[in-house]
From TrEMBL:
Domain Aminoacyl-transfer RNA synthetases class-II family profile: 38-465
Enzyme class, first EC level, given as a word: ligase
Stretches assigned to coiled coil: none
E.C. number: 6.1.1.15
Entry protein name: Proline--tRNA ligase
Location relative to the cell: Cytoplasm
Organism: Methylohalomonas lacus
Assembly, per entry: Homodimer.
Family from the record: Belongs to the class-II aminoacyl-tRNA synthetase family. ProS type 1 subfamily.
Catalyzed reaction equations: tRNA(Pro) + L-proline + ATP = L-prolyl-tRNA(Pro) + AMP + diphosphate
One GO-annotated biological process of the protein: prolyl-tRNA aminoacylation
Transmembrane feature ranges: none
One cellular component (GO) term of this entry: cytosol
Length: 570
RNA sequence: CGGGGUGUAGCUCAGCUUGGUAGAGCGCUGCCUUCGGGAGGCAGAGGUCACAGGUUCAAAUCCUGUUACCCCGACCA
């Protein structure tokens, strides 16, 4: 491809509303343009990347025996009514009506359509198991689309649905998809982790999310430095500390703390180590009253874990200040376990504390030197906090490291949620109808593009992993318009590279070198060759890989082989 | 949905307080010079100042309404 025949719409400055680096770079590199909030066009350069991601996903899904099909983007309301989701999906489902006043929606996912299709097509256990996938545009009317393509309303997704006669077969395909996803993200050249995920309302069955690791990720994930264990921080278990709490060495004392409203104040004004403080959080209880949850001052309450306690009201909700004062007689900032008039659950790490400080349940006073047993009965103990870096791994191997991740894939075992609602059955060996068991497996194809940039960029622009770069190599002739000899040499190599099947971009614009360098670095082409008169005199070209800062002189003769070797070495 | 902010040239923004008929830098077109890290000069093109109404002799500027977009929060995955 020649730049003079290609829409290379690079921008010097990114539009002001682009917040994260991938969004800025995708706009600056001319990959995407916005049509409306969360809705984008892909320019030729961006589409090349998207297609490369798609091709890898498709190849690996095919290799795993999945069959590609394509389902409609517009779906009839009847199917959603059948599964019950027409009423339950909420405003994220964009509903539309046709000229005959019939209801439809723009598909945010395709469980209904595939289940409808398969219940008609699959009659016998002999056709199972089967796994169908598509790569298709989805629409979710997000309340707040943001971060460009990362959290768009319209996005490209690979979604797959598998069908089985029993759980064992489902588990087998699930495991196979886990392996396939691992291969896909390895081939994409991204640093990623498969993490144990929340199974949500479906419950019970296994689920994993695949996260691309990047500082800007929306999810915190915890993984072991010594094993495969990885989980969303929301789900990672905090192991109870070993051993008994240390014996009391201090007397209980009531201290005036008029200026201490927060843990930070307490630490700063009274010289208490933060690990010797306790946070008391009040939530609504299942019985209609209030419940106190205690975590150490330096820990965070984990709402997912708290919501699982039987004593906690559903949905999980913090109590208001007025309610707290009515029940306890003191406001937030002065609460603690001593003389607490409401039920209480404490985190494991709190149960292990001694000689600690907490609110006195008296306005503007704290108790210091609190010890369980002596000053307050130890209440129920549970896992209530987010894990932190350095905690022991729940599988007993190594300690936890916390990184941020971008969710790009999700696999889970659906079971019979849709097949039973929609009566999708087939006959087993005995001729009896069995409700199909299902799994589903998604990859956010367009999000992968943004995630790859979040993980791989520098201050000059994008650094594409080789497998998904829009072009593999850039040819940059300097002052080609002034030298026919240079032009001939460039054209010759360009033709040879193309004949060798290399994805090459020839910058034949009459631009100054600085402009070419800046553009090629911005759009992230992994390899570049610079042609100059001076080099030709010496029979040499300059080669540089994208992240390097040094040029390498290579002989003009055999340049194609050299490039081939460089491409292969990545 | 609640709170906040912004809409002026393709992009980044000034002008608005104090009303007087539209600006800069970058980008774009042409010519000249330059030519190894986003060059310089000259000449151009390009704007219903988001939209509608109002006040006024006069509105980008003041007032009202609408709309779009952005940020924070809640929500969702």
């Amino acid at each position: 491809m020649r730049t003079t025949n290609y829409l290379l719409s690079t921008l010097r400055e990114a539009p002001a509303d682009a917040e994260i680096i991938s969004h800025q770079l995708m706009l600056k590199a001319g990959m995407i343009r916005k049509s409306a909030a969360g809705i984008y066009s892909w320019l030729p350069l961006g589409l090349r990347v998207l297609r490369k991601v798609e091709a890898i996903v498709r190849a690996e899904m095919d290799a795993a025996g999945a069959q590609e099909l394509l389902m409609p983007g517009v779906q009839p309301a009847e199917l959603w009514a059948e599964s019950g989701r027409w009423d339950h999906y909420g405003p994220e489902l964009l509903r539309i009506r046709d000229r005959h006043e019939r209801d439809f929606c723009l598909g945010p996912t395709h469980e209904e359509v595939i289940t409808d299709l398969i219940r008609r097509e699959i009659r016998s256990y002999k056709q199972l198991p089967a796994n169908f996938y598509q790569i298709q545009t989805k629409f979710r009317d997000e309340i707040r689309p943001r971060f460009g393509i990362m959290r768009a309303r319209e996005f490209l997704m690979k979604d797959a649905y598998s069908f089985h006669l029993d759980e064992a077969s489902l588990r087998e395909t699930y495991q196979q998809m886990h392996t396939t996803y691992t291969r896909i993200f390895e081939r994409l050249g991204l640093e990623f982790r498969a993490v144990i995920a929340d199974t949500g309302a479906i419950g019970g069955n296994a689920s994993h999310e695949f996260h691309v690791l990047a500082e800007s990720g929306e999810d915190a994930i915890a993984f072991s430095d010594a094993s495969d264990y990885a989980a969303n921080v929301e789900l990672a278990e905090a192991a109870p500390p070993a051993g008994e709490p240390a014996a009391a060495t201090e007397e209980l004392r009531l201290i005036d703390t008029p200026e201490a409203k927060t843990i930070a104040d307490l630490v700063e004004q009274h010289g208490l180590p933060i690990e010797k403080t306790v946070k008391t959080l009040i939530v609504k209880a299942a019985d209609g009253g209030l419940l106190a949850l205690l975590v150490r001052g330096d820990h965070e309450l984990n709402a997912v874990k708290a919501a699982r306690l039987a004593q906690v009201a559903e949905p999980f909700e913090f109590a208001g200040e007025a309610e707290i004062r009515a029940a306890i007689g003191a406001g937030p900032g002065s609460l603690g376990p001593v003389n607490l008039p409401i039920p209480c659950v404490v985190d494991h790490s709190v149960a292990a504390m001694s000689d600690f400080g907490a609110g006195a349940n008296i306005e503007a006073k704290h108790y210091f030197g609190i010890n369980w047993g002596r000053d307050a009965e130890l209440p129920e103990v549970a896992d209530l906090r987010n894990v932190v870096a350095g905690d022991p791994s729940p599988d007993g191997q190594g300690t936890l490291v916390i990184r941020r991740g971008i969710e790009v894939g999700h696999i889970f075992q659906l079971g019979t949620k849709y097949s039973s609602a929609m009566k999708a059955t087939c006959l087993d060996e005995n001729g009896t109808a069995q409700t199909l068991t299902m799994g589903c497996y998604g990859i956010g194809v367009s999000r992968v593009v943004a995630a790859a940039i979040e993980q791989n960029h520098d201050d000059r622009g994008i650094i594409w992993p080789a497998a998904i770069a829009p072009f593999e190599l850039a040819l940059l002739p300097i002052n080609m318009h002034k030298s026919q000899r240079l032009r001939d040499a460039v054209e010759k190599l360009y033709a040879e590279l193309r004949a060798a099947g290399i994805d090459v971009l020839l910058d034949d614009r009459r631009e100054r070198p600085g402009v070419m360098f800046a553009d090629m670095e911005l759009i992230g082409i992994p390899h570049r060759i610079v042609f100059s008169e001076k080099g030709l005199d010496a029979g040499q070209l300059e080669y540089r890989a994208r992240p390097d800062s040094e040029n390498q002189n290579i002989p003009l003769e055999g340049a194609v082989d050299f490039i081939r070797a460089q491409l292969a070495s990545v």
